[in-house]
Design a protein that fits this description.
The complex is a heterodimer of chains A (249) and B (167). With 249 residues, chain A is mostly helical. In chain A, strand 3 and strand 4 form a beta hairpin. Chain B is mainly α and 167 residues long. Helices cover 93% and strands 0% of the residues of chain B. The N and C termini of chain B lie far apart (171 Å). In chain B, 7% of the residues are buried. The chains are: A mainly alpha (249), B mainly alpha (167). At the A-B interface, strand 2, helix 1, helix 2, helix 3 and helix 4 of A face helix 2 of B.
Chain lengths: 249, 167
């Protein structure tokens, strides 16, 4: 049975920089999306082709969803890049992680036993990926909040000394702490779901290699989409709360 | 804490790399996909909106034209009926005039024919009178040849007058 590791395995080093299988697949996802972006940009027409139609449909659906949260198409278009990029990056990474490329790997020995390090691993099953996204998401939320309502007003919900003094201040401290808790919540939710899916597929694939893993694969395709959706929607909701003029209450 | 971070495989270099990957993707997608696509979609939306407004305007104008056509057709029908009626009246008037002229011509022709016939009759009568006169004269000459003392010019003229009256 393949070794199940909580950490992403290192494939090679560039100088002192370790390149893990999760980072490699994250880079592949990036590359695929960049190539698709160039293709779309170069073939952009008033009467869309197939690829452009798919992306237009996707963006239109995301914008509609954002409209229902933000209530304004202009705001939706303003915050579309961060929300849509989170969604596309996580979903592409999750789906690429499901491809049976895990069997391609480097032969090595672990505790004296021969072992195979898979060349690709779903990026979201590595905490570096999920924590990085969670931190960027949180920074974006606060930056967009500051840009929308101003520095003072935005941070007044964390550091508030109005009456009733102790209660409001304590709530502010809790709000401030919750910002850091969000990082943990965001990153571990995504990591937990994707990592659990990977483990499930490895175990089922090891026990019954044919046919039986198929429904689980479909389940993981769905989970990959849902987790990307949840991450981006939570970001959107927090952005909406942070940018609301009345403090999002 | 450091042990936990190590166990979870969190490495600041990998963390930054993943963050950089995301930021590169964010920039690329914003520049190459979101903005151009949003622009194209907005242009298309405007074109469709313009097209729809144009179509509505065209439909409205078509309705107006149809209504105008109906009005014109009704008016044309009325005018046509009026023209037909006037033409019928004019035709009737002209017909009456032609008939009147023809009747007048026919009357004139008949009168002329009667006059000519009368003239011919008179000529024939004159010729007959002359012949009768000559015959009477010849008869009387023959009688006179038998007995010349009976010649009476006055009586001959009177007989010719009687024949003329009887003719």
């Amino acid at each position: 049975m393949p070794e199940i590791s909580l950490k992403a395995e290192e494939i090679f080093h560039i100088g002192s920089f370790p390149v893990t299988n999760a980072l490699l697949l994250s880079f592949v996802s990036l590359l695929i999306l960049v190539i698709l972006s160039f293709l779309i940009k170069n073939r952009l027409k008033m009467v869309p082709g197939k690829l452009q139609s798919v992306f237009e449909l996707l963006l239109e659906q995301i914008l509609k969803l954002m409209d229902s949260v933000l209530g304004d198409r202009k705001l939706s278009e303003k915050y579309l890049p961060i929300v849509a990029t989170i969604f596309l990056f996580i979903m592409t990474s999750n789906w690429l992680g499901l491809l049976p490329l895990g069997s391609i790997g480097l032969n090595t020995t672990h505790q004296g036993l021969p072992s195979v390090i898979p060349l690709f691993r779903s990026p979201a099953s590595d905490l570096n990926f999920t924590v990085a996204l969670a931190v960027i998401s949180l920074i974006s939320i606060n930056l967009l909040g500051i840009l929308a309502i101003g520095f003072k007003k935005h941070f007044s919900k964390f550091f508030n000394f109005h009456k009733p003094f102790p209660v409001i201040s304590f709530v502010g401290v809790l709000e401030f702490l919750s910002e850091f808790v969000k990082i943990v919540s965001f990153s571990f939710r995504l990591f937990g779901n994707v990592f659990a899916g990977e483990v499930l597929l490895v175990i089922v694939g090891f026990l019954v290699p044919y046919v039986v893993p198929l429904p689980f694969m479909f389940l993981e395709v769905f989970v990959g989409f849902i987790q990307a959706f949840i991450f981006s929607m939570l970001t959107l909701v927090f952005v909406a709360m942070a940018t609301a003029k009345d403090g999002g209450h | 804490m450091q042990e936990l971070v190590h166990q979870l495989g969190i490495n600041w270099k990998l963390l930054l790399s993943q963050g950089a990957n995301f930021l590169i993707l964010l920039i690329v997608l914003t520049l190459l996909v979101y903005r151009p696509l949003a622009k194209v979609m907005e242009e298309r939306r405007k074109k469709i909106e313009f097209g729809l407004v144009g179509a509505e305007e065209a439909e409205r104008r078509l309705k107006e034209i149809d209504q105008l056509k109906e009005e014109k057709m009704t008016e044309a029908d009325k005018n046509a009926l009026k023209l037909i009626s006037e033409a019928e009246k004019k035709g009737q008037k002209r017909f009456d005039e032609i008939i009147k002229v023809a009747e007048e011509k026919a009357d004139g022709t008949l009168a002329e024919a009667a006059r000519i016939a009368e003239h011919k009759k008179q000529e024939e009568l004159d010729r007959l009178f002359e012949k009768a006169n000559a015959l009477i004269k010849e008869a009387i000459v023959k009688m006179v040849e038998l007995d010349p003392k009976y010649i009476d010019d006055k009586l001959i003229s009177r007989a010719a007058e009687v024949i003329k009256e009887k003719a």
